[in-house]
Structures are given as structure tokens and as C-alpha cells.
């Protein structure tokens, strides 16, 4: 270490030298040696870089190197992420996963093997043939089930999710669509006819009542008015004069 030790350092250093960089760090910072060419320079960081793990001591906090196959680690013997080509399992980096486990190339970890799981079978469907449930004697019925757990790479594959079997039904005729449609059209036409008939009858009734009313009005206009009879005094006077 160069004897020139300075107290006025930068970059989180508590003490430093021109030749070796940081010699000690300010509180809570980690001291780590970085290699530059043939020499090592001390630096102070808030957290340890990749490939190192931090240890805290009363006088200094240091960054120590992980194992060669570790990318990041919690301690030297407990890896948290492995370098390329290795799989993480219980804090260790392995080239091959133990028996009963499989390598997950996405997370680069050894994980448990997951087998496929399915639900219970559904009830059998109605006996059908060509999408119909009538007009035949022999048909097919189907039942299905769902996949509730997809398998992992080395897990047991999923079985069939549908089954079909032949079935026999009491033969019955299908109602013809054309006939049913024709009956519906005839009912609609008859209903329209009944409504039209009622409408015509109501119109005729109104016309007849209007004609009768007009006839009465015409009769009242053409009939001559009756002359008013003279009062009793005039009649008596006429009788006296005659005598």
C-alpha cells in the first residue's frame, strides 16, 4: 500500500491513496477490489456487483467472490443465480438435475416434474346421428372431460379428453320442418283473415249507422211543417159570429 493516505477522498471512500484507490469506506458501503490490468483498485459501493456477496463486520463491510459457477449468491455456499450452462437447485449450481426433477430452461432451475391432471367425465350426451336426435335407430353418444393441470416437459402426457360410443334409441320420426313451417303460415293467414273479417264487419256497421243518421236528417228536412191550431178564445169568437 502506498504510504500517501488521504482523508479527502471521493466516491464513498473514507481513506484512500493515489496508487490503491479506496482503503476504507464510509458507513454502510461495501469495500471491493477491482482488477485493472496487473493491479487491484479498491472501490466503495452501496451493493456488491454480480458474482460477489456482501459480508458486514464491525470495522468494515466487504464484498467477497461467489463460486465460479454462481452469477449471484447470498453466501459463498448458497447461490441464488447460476451462470449459463448450470441449473440452480437448493443454492447450488448443477450441470444436471437430480432424479425426480427436471431442468427448466426458462428459469434455469431444477423443478419438480408435473404430470397431467383431468377432471371427471361429463354425463353421456343424447344419442345423435348427423346432428339429429330422431329419424334413426343407431347413433352415437359422447362424453368429455377438461384438463385441469398441463404436464411439464417430463410429465405424463394428457389422455384423450373425449369419448364416443354407439347407442340405440327408440326409432321416431322427425317433424318435417317444411310442414311445420307451412302450418305456422296457415295459422298466421287464418288469423289475418279473421282480423280482416272483423275489421270489415265493423266498417260495415259504422257505414250503416252513418247512412241511417243521414236518412233521418233528410226526412226531417223534406217533411212539411204542421200549422198551429188557433187558441180557444179565437174559436169561440168565430162560433158566436156565425150565430
Automatic annotation (TrEMBL):
BP terms from Gene Ontology: positive regulation of non-canonical Wnt signaling pathway; Wnt signaling pathway
Domain of life per record: Eukaryota
Listed PROSITE patterns: TSP1 (PS50092)
Domain R-spondin Fu-CRD residue range list: 11-110
Record has Ligase as a keyword: no
Any GO MF annotation of the entry: signaling receptor binding
InterPro entries named among the record's database cross-references: Furin_repeat, Growth_fac_rcpt_cys_sf, R-spondin, Rspo_Fu-CRD_dom, TSP1_rpt, TSP1_rpt_sf, TSP1_spondin_dom
Keyword entries, A-Z: Disulfide bond, Glycoprotein, Heparin-binding, Repeat, Secreted, Sensory transduction, Signal, Wnt signaling pathway
GO cellular component: extracellular region
Region feature Disordered, mapped onto this chain: 169-243
Main location: secreted
Domain Spondin-like TSP1: start-end pairs: 116-170
Coiled coil location: none
Subcellular location as annotated: Secreted
Pfam families (alphabetical): Furin-like_2, TSP1_spondin
Biased composition (Basic and acidic residues): 175-219
Family (UniProt): Belongs to the R-spondin family.
Function: Activator of the canonical Wnt signaling pathway by acting as a ligand for LGR4-6 receptors, which acts as a key regulator of angiogenesis. Upon binding to LGR4-6 (LGR4, LGR5 or LGR6), LGR4-6 associate with phosphorylated LRP6 and frizzled receptors that are activated by extracellular Wnt receptors, triggering the canonical Wnt signaling pathway to increase expression of target genes. Also regulates the canonical Wnt/beta-catenin-dependent pathway and non-canonical Wnt signaling by acting as an inhibitor of ZNRF3, an important regulator of the Wnt signaling pathway.
Subunit composition and interactions: Interacts with the extracellular domain of FZD8 and LRP6. It however does not form a ternary complex with FZD8 and LRP6. Interacts with WNT1. Binds heparin. Interacts with LGR4, LGR5 and LGR6.
PANTHER family, per database record: NEUROHYPOPHYSIAL HORMONES, N-TERMINAL DOMAIN CONTAINING PROTEIN, R-SPONDIN-3
Protein name (database record): R-spondin-3
